């Protein structure tokens, strides 16, 4: 398949810790999706990852030439703490993105020491396992302000014209208490279903104006099931960055169960 030139903004669920690369059956459909995604979008020249697992007071960018990995999960087998993904960093791209954010009124920071967290290396191990594409990570804002994250994404929009993939790595359902044994493990969660339906319509409905779409995403906590699905919104906000970068309606490219909960993925 020949990709559309605009398909350089992608928001994905990254699953539970390293479970997607452990052969966990509750991640089978997500793993298949991630492995097949390059067939659709091809191979970008570079990747900017916005991960749910990095928050800073100011937008911060990895700026080292060879960032290490941060195994920011706990309680998994020893081999998951020796995973490797030696993708090169891209200090020049980090500097360029910092300039774009600065022009948009942000006060970005370049961090030459920070490594890649699992929101980056777990999905990319499945998407581009040869680890040869340069990657930088961009933090989210500690304020968790949805409007600011949309604005941050809008500042990145010109990157898509230079074949840079903007990858939002989060999870459209992230209530940790609901993943336990006392809750449904194969779907059947009405609030999860309601929120996914609302989010899918918000992101993909071509009849919405962009002002309406933006208002919905800024006021996401008013949606049905919103605070059940996201007691804290850090795993949702990579989507806001992607919307800001992509603009307009998205296409839903993933709509399936992950860890027994319905989750979505979107492309612009």
Question: What does this entry look like structurally?
Answer:
The protein has eight helices and eight strands. It has helices spanning 28-41, 91-103, 118-127, 146-156, 190-204, 210-218, 226-229, 237-246, and strands at 9-13, 46-56, 60-62, 109-111, 135-141, 164-170, 251-258, 261-267. Helix 1 (28-41) packs across helix 3 and helix 4 packs across helix 8 (237-246). Helix content is 32%, strand content 19%. The protein is an alpha/beta fold and 268 residues long. The strands form two sheets. A six-stranded mixed beta sheet has the order 5-2-6-1-8-7, with helices on both faces. A two-stranded parallel ribbon has the order 3-4. The protein has a single domain (9-267), classed as LigB-like (Protocatechuate 4,5-dioxygenase, Chain B).
In short:
With 268 residues, the protein is α/β, with parallel strands linked by helices. The protein has eight helices and eight strands; from the N terminus they run βαββαβαβαβααααββ. The chain has helices at 28-41, 91-103, 118-127, 146-156, 190-204, 210-218, 226-229, 237-246, and strands at 9-13, 46-56, 60-62, 109-111, 135-141, 164-170, 251-258, 261-267.
Defining traits:
Protocatechuate 4,5-dioxygenase, Chain B, globular, 19% strand, six-stranded mixed sheet, disordered N terminus, single chain, 8 helices
């Amino acid at each position: 398949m020949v990709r559309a030139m605009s398909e350089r903004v992608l928001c994905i669920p990254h699953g539970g810790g390293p479970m997607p690369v452990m052969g966990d059956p509750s991640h089978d459909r997500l793993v298949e999706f991630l492995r097949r995604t390059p067939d659709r979008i091809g191979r970008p020249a570079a990747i900017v990852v916005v991960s749910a697992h990095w928050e800073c007071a100011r937008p911060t960018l990895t700026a080292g030439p060879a960032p290490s990995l941060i195994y920011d999960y706990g309680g998994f087998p020893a081999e998951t703490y020796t995973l490797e993904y030696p993708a090169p960093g891209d200090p020049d791209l980090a500097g360029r993105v910092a300039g774009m954010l600065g022009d948009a009124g942000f006060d970005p920071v370049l961090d030459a020491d920070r490594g890649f967290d699992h929101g980056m290396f777990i999905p990319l191990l499945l998407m581009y396992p040869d680890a040869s594409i340069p990657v930088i990570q961009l933090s989210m804002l500690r304020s968790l302000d949805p409007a600011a994250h949309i604005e941050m994404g809008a500042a990145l929009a010109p990157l898509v014209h230079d074949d840079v993939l903007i990858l939002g790595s989060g999870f459209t359902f992230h209530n940790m208490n609901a993943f336990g044994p006392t809750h449904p493990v194969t779907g059947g969660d009405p609030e999860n279903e309601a929120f996914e339906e609302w989010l899918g319509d918000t992101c993909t409905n071509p009849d919405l104006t962009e002002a309406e779409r933006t208002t919905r995403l800024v006021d996401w906590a008013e949606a049905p099931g919103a605070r059940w699905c996201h007691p804290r919104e850090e795993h949702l906000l990579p989507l806001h960055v992607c919307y800001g970068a992509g603009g307009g309606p998205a296409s839903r490219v993933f709509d399936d169960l992950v860890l027994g909960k319905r989750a979505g993925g979107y492309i612009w």
